[in-house]
Amino acid sequence: MKITHRILSILLALVPLATCAQGNSYTSNPMMRVIMDTYASILRENPQDYETYLNRAKEYYRYGDYSKALSDLNEAIRYYPRQEASDLSQAYTVRGLIYQSQGDDMKALADFNEALLLEPESRFSLISRADLLREMGDNMHAKEDYQLLLRRDTRCQEAYLGLGIIAHRENNMGMCHDYMEKAMQANPTNVDFYITRAAIYEDMGEWRKAANDYITAMTFGDNRRSVAGINALSSIAYEPVVEALSVAIDNAEDKGFYYFIRGSIHMNNQHYSASIQDWNTIVDKKYLHFHSVYYNRGFCYMRLGQFDYAIEDVSTAIMMKGDQMPYYLTRSKLYRIMGQYEQAMEDISVAATFDMTHKDVLAQRAMLATEQRNYDEAIAYYNEAILNNADEASLYLLRGDIYALLQDNESALRNYRMILNIHEHTPTFASCQGFAMARMGRIEEAEAWMESVMASIKGIPSPEDYYNAACLYANTGNKTMAYQYLEKALSAGYGDYFNLYFEYDTPISLASLRNEADFRELIKNFREVF
Questions:
Q1: What is the pLDDT of residues 387-437, one digit of tens each?
Q2: How far apart are CA 179 and CA 158, in angstroms?
Q3: Residue 117 needs a FRET pair 20 to 30 A away by CA distance; which of 48, 325, 332, 515 works?
Q4: Rounded-to-integer distance, Cα 186 and Cα 175, Å
């Protein structure tokens, strides 16, 4: 049977929309493979079939394969008869969206203009042009397009939302809230609206409202963007996010899902005791039976220094889901910290079966070798890790530290210099540059770098930022500043007991302070954090 465009449209209607989510490939869906193969077959028979080019381009676009979509759209526009204005207009608009995603705003604007010349009534094209003009900062012409949309449809949510964003940009908060309210009333079940409004509330500093919108998006089934959004928000507004999730738990029928999100946010913000309480509730009430629940609880126990409980939970996760490399690496680290080197090596060996060249596998092997004083072996592992991860600064620092331990100062300095040669767009603790400077004796530069990192942080520094600063000053020998930043970290809720007392095999640690009475007394004063 010859597959016609009509049959293809029926097949496409049968493909679940979820399969088109970003990150999925059309090659992983059997029906989509049949459809794409059919498109290719039609084009082999008729290389000028503009309709097929457009339809295939839209599928490529849905799956995020923009280069192939762009190629097909160019062919569609090349062969489309001008009298078929509606479809040709659509081709220009989709191509404009791709240009916009690539940062080529002028090409995008030209395509949107062409689309509207072909089909002036196209809502799709007009919304696309209005949004682009707004993003380009041309508020006047964006407003004109949005107002035109509202004259045609008084319930155009995209127009109200766009006008609300412009009002916010112009610091007209009353008008902004008014437009947002109208946008919600226009379509109160549109997930995209809540995701967009949450981002606007973030810009306005209205954290609780932003968290509420992400949670609303979750209730409508958008877990990928809403969960990512609320997790990111929690790093700058932890308490409002937790408060919003606590209300959601009280009101939800599916409590397990929200406990999982809140437990993850507690964990990601180093509030491990609170996180454990949520994992305990999930397990005790049998809300969820996921391997990740046990792994996350085990990870939290590890960060609190409760290693036996951690081993038990991570082992349970492995029994439930034995194909997770990070689980074996975490248990290997636990065994190593506990001095059980044989078990640690067994878990690293299993992890290596997933990817023997993975950076974390090689680093764990190097750390275990270092702890057993097999320094040449450790250096060999770091050599291999650096070969595949040349911009990973921490690896050079770790390898340099082994050379320093062997009193090969020339090799140690060479590794520290390599860190400084890695381009740093914005100063961040992850670049390790200040720690390399400290090891090279360039103390003033190291401390100036650390202050530049803190100055580059948007908003209030996180507890982890303060902890990292304390580690840098501990490395430079400036104990006064180290303790000041450590106190800031603990006051802000830094609850990683493992990092404070046990972590010694990463370049960033407080190992040099741990034997001091002042250190122990300061931690004791904040014991409620743990």
A1: 999 999 999 999 999 999 999 999 999 999 999 999 888 888 989 999 999
A2: 10
A3: 48
A4: 16
C-alpha 483/C-alpha 521 separation (Å) is: 11
| Residue 249: partners with Cβ closer than 8 Å, 6 or more residues away | 255, 258, 259, 262
- The pLDDT, as a whole number, for residue 459 is 73
Q: Distance between CA atoms of 105 and 100, rounded to whole angstroms?
A: 5
Residue pointed to by tokens 């509606």: 86
> What is the spatial distance between Cα 352 and Cα 341, in angstroms, rounded to a whole number?
16
Dihedral over Cα of 283, 286, 292, 294: its sign: positive
Chain CA centroid to CA 397, Å: 26
Answer yes or no: are the C-beta atoms of 498 and 302 closer than 8 Å.
Answer: yes
Report how far residue 470's alpha carbon sits from residue 479's, in angstroms, rounded to the nearest whole number: 9
More confidently predicted of 519 and 221: 519
243 to 234, 380, 502: CA distances (angstroms): 11, 49, 32
Rounded Cα distance, 136 and 125, in Å: 16
The mean of the pLDDT values for the chain is: 90
Question: How much of the chain exceeds pLDDT 70, in percent?
Answer: 95
Return d(Cα 237, Cα 251) in angstroms, integer. Answer: 22
Q: What's the distance, CA 110 to chain centroid?
A: 33
Residue 358: strand, helix, or coil: coil
